[in-house]
Amino acid sequence: MAAPKRGRSGSAQSKPGRSLALILIAIVALTGGMFLSGNTTPRLGIDLAGGTSITLQAQNEPGQPNAINKANMDTAVAIMNRRVNGLGVSETEVQTQGTSNIIVNIPKGTNSEEARQQVGTTAKLYFRPVLAQEASTGAAPSTSPSASSSGSSSPSSSPSPSSSASSSEKATGSSSSPSSSATSQGRAVTDALKADSTPSSSTSPSPSATSSADAAATAEAGKLQAQYAALDCSKSSQRATAGKTAKPSDSTVACGQIDGAWYKYVLGPAAVDGTEVKKAQAVFDTQGASGWQVQMNFNSSGAKKFADVTASLAKNQQPQNEFGIVLDGEVVSSPYVSQSITGGQAEISGSFKQEEAQSLANMLSYGALPLSFKEQSVTTVTAALGGEQLHAGLLAGAIGLALVIIYLVAFYRGLSLVAIPSLLVSAILTYTIMALLGPAIHFALNLPAVCGAIVAIGITADSFIVFFERIRDEIREGRTLRPAVERAWPRARRTILVSDFVSFLAAAVLFIVTVGKVQGFAFTLGLTTVLDVVVVFLFTKPLMTILARRKFFAGGHKWSGLDPKGLGAKAPLRRTRRPAGPVAGPVDPKEA
Questions:
Q1: What is the phi/psi pair of residue 200, to 5°?
Q2: Around Cβ 343, how many Cβ atoms within 10 Å?
Q3: Which long-range contacts link 27-30 to residues 24+ away (Cβ below 8 Å)?
Q4: Packing angle between helix 447-476 and helix 384-412, nearest 10 degrees?
Q5: What is the pLDDT of residues 182-222, one digit of tens each?
Q6: What is the pLDDT of residues 261-307, one digit of tens each?
Q7: Is 49 helix (H, G, I), strand (E, B) or coil?
Q8: Residue 67 CB coordination number (10 Å)
Q9: Of 97, 175, 85, 165, which Cα lies nearest the Cα of 137?
Q10: CA-CA distance, 533 to 463, in Å (whole number)?
């Protein structure tokens, strides 16, 4: 007679140590990662840790007196929220107050300066040709980064002539009185402005019209020349106003920082609008030396404009073969081009740090704010009330956990040696993952999230009870413990999976359809539900298999929680196989 095949249950029964070793390795790895990262406690939300509250007031745009309306305010809130709270669990709150104010609450532990920049920056991006460039007071000469089409070789960099000239000039003169270098740049500005202002028509303009246009262009160029000569970008007061109110169709002066040094620019009219950037992402150049870059994809109209402007700039000498990438009036990079960049793909490079590249890509990807905002007030929020609520919540959780343990010990007795370690493993996994999610996705633990973790105690205990009751049912049928565990597991497993799936589905729906603090509750509930499945499969079941081999449990001790007499098992216990064939016996006369 062939030996029966050993199925999955038999294999799992004989090698439970593998599952226990796997979950032990996971605990060690997560705990080690937590200590190595230096984040040994979960990041707390503003209601528990306090933080910073910023009030932003919307400003009317020039020529748009009715721009402040509900639609634009709601759009601004949505964009700000996506910038600082992409996954919905960082606990940075963005909400409207009245008709023209937006309140931003940033929890303690978040980079408040970076968050303030992200929520208040309008991210109005323009690509403007550089007409003149000069190192401002106290700056050192730098190199101009290059712009290249995506996928090309590593961009090279070379010194900008204007930067070099102005830097040597800075060692001997004042920035307030333009030198020969500045004068030659001024002539270039004048010539460029005349070219931009000259009417493009197939018919020759009259002498009086040409004279008037030249006079207007000369006057405008003289005004711009004076602004450029007086601009000192090393002073924050001048940087705050330079180029901030310029229209896209106008030439302007602006400031930009390269390698910690400030430079001043004269920029021509915008050639490409930032709204024509379809996608932007920060990447690290692994094949070259340019470091972090921002890769951009343009839409069809932007790709054509970008190809045209780079083709025009490539014909010029530096710095007039550069274009300034101007974000909210500030030059964030001024790459030069040597050929037309076609295909709708480009890279912005220029001494970006990782955070700077990601921040710029983030703002460009999520879009520009429909309104400009002024920072009205910045206040510090204390966590006194939240601390009291947290204390009360933790006390409630401890009481609930104690009652669960008392119930398990009183009703399941020895089986509590399986349930209590399982609860402990679930708690360790939950804590370490929450601590690691803080820096990873900016997860912050708030009061609703704490409630979700407390609810998870019941979900986890319910899984143990389902398994234990299935084992008891098998023992009541007269089976011994080891086969009872293996026969009970498939039935309990189906019930546990269905129950946890319903809980996870509810958490997922709640996370999607809600905003704010409720998302923290839903996220925690979903996380702990997934961990419940992991703990039951990789810890509870293997541990129960090992204990079933011990005499205390296998012999049905009255304190094991699996006493056949106490459970009302059928006697005697069935330990024999069912006969393979029919059993001979007396024949019923009625059947004869």
A1: -100, 100
A2: 13
A3: 27/425, 27/428, 27/429, 27/432, 30/429, 30/432, 30/433, 30/436
A4: 0
A5: 333 322 222 333 334 333 333 444 555 456 656 666 777 88
A6: 888 999 999 998 877 888 888 888 777 666 788 888 888 888 999 88
A7: helix
A8: 16
A9: 175
A10: 9
Question: Do 341 and 313 contact (CB within 8 A), yes or no?
Answer: no
- DSSP assignment, residue 317? P
Tokens 């001790």, located at residue: 557
Residue 465 and residue 417: Cα distance in Å, rounded? Answer: 13
Tokens linked to 443: 């997860």
Across the strands, what pairs with 272? 127
- The number of residues in the chain equals 592
Residue 496: count of CB within 10 angstroms of its CB: 24
- d(CA 423, CA 425) in angstroms, rounded, equals 6
pLDDT tens figures, 442-482: 788 888 888 888 888 888 888 989 999 999 999 988 888 99
Sorted by sequence, the CB contacts under 8 Å of residue 70 that are 6+ apart come out as 99
Assess contact for 446 and 42: CB atoms under 8 A. no
Q: How far is CA 548 from CA 23, 95, 484, 552, 585, in A?
A: 20, 57, 9, 8, 39
496, amino acid identity? I
What's the CA gap between 512 and 93, in Å, rounded?
Answer: 17
